[in-house]
Amino acid sequence: MIPVNLRSEVGRLKAVLLHRPGREIEAMTPENAHDALYSDVLNLNIVNQEYGYFAGSLEKVAKVYYVQDLLETVLEHDDAAELLVRKSCSLDGCGFLADELLGHDSKTLARELIEGFVYRKGKDPDSFAERRYLLRPLYNLFFTRDASSCVYRRALINSMSFDVRNRESLIYKTIFELLFEANTLRAQKHDSKARTEGGDIHIVKDGLLCIGNGIRTNRNGIDFLVDEFRNYDDTFSFVVQELPHSPESFIHLDMVFTFLGPHRCMAYEPMIRKQGIFSNMHTYVITTSNDRTETREYNNILEALKYMGVDLEPVICGGNDSWMQQREQWHSGANFFSFGENHIIGYRRNSHTIDALDKAGFEVLNAEDVSEGKVNPWDYKQCVVTFAASELPRGGGGARCMTCPINREAVDWNL
Description:
29% of the residues lie in helices and 23% in strands. By secondary structure, the protein is an alpha/beta fold. The chain is globular, with a radius of gyration of 21 Å.
């Protein structure tokens, strides 16, 4: 296994963790979609087509690990299977099911832990009939960034804000510890009220993280990160951007801000200008050195990063039209994933954002051509790989949300 080693958001990608959406996303109805953290139901056939070109493009540029394959391998270890199954059943209140599940082969069991286990009339307690599942499906698993995120040489097993996602954290903890032999850390282990999610955590460089503070990552979670990383370097800093708690399109920092390269970023303009819903959102830098901690406020995230020696030129999500900025941000128009310096991938549907990237000098490539080997992204100094998406954005995330990078090459910040 390629070891965990992530020291930036933009270094050339060597390994990434993905999950191909499966039958678990068909387990939603309009009635339970909100509980599953969705605002709509998705069509699996269309999702598979869209995701195929996305994943296929990344397979051309890096080693891709898939969660279900790794979970099958994990479940071949009896002790790991025992722990995962019993904890999973306990979380969903169906401990009586554990012995039955442990009798299944690893492939079947991996599928059940992801897709859920359906209630059987006459065999299972009637109390499960209404919710249909004894073991609930992992509706959000294809957003691999949320529940686990690699930070430097460790895997942060995130403390999720909603119980429906707790089993994801269990799975990732086992995968990273058993297969990648990585050290893991988790905020909730030290503070029961602490919450962190990967969409809010951006690695700028050694000694500097960018953190979103909103409905998913709370101040307790940030305090944990400060305490955990203050000894990583002689001086360690955190650029913190507050986020509105509603609507749901602002759940993570990467929905309004992502790194494209060492000196480029994608940003939602109202966040930079502190307009509208962002008018009361604060931006500040926490710096720790030895036993001393200092906090200083700035006008916006770009100014704060510049103070920390990272001068970024923004490309504006949605272009210059404020209406289009709102429309495209809603469907993850700022949520790009960098697989190399100024080599990014994102939704084609956000046409005004793609036009802004084109004007900024990014060659616009089609994921269909990249995934089929007709075009090589590395032939271009900077490019954006676009993939068609109508169903995937309705899940509430974009390319960065759907990736958990494990290893990147180092970035030369002097270039």
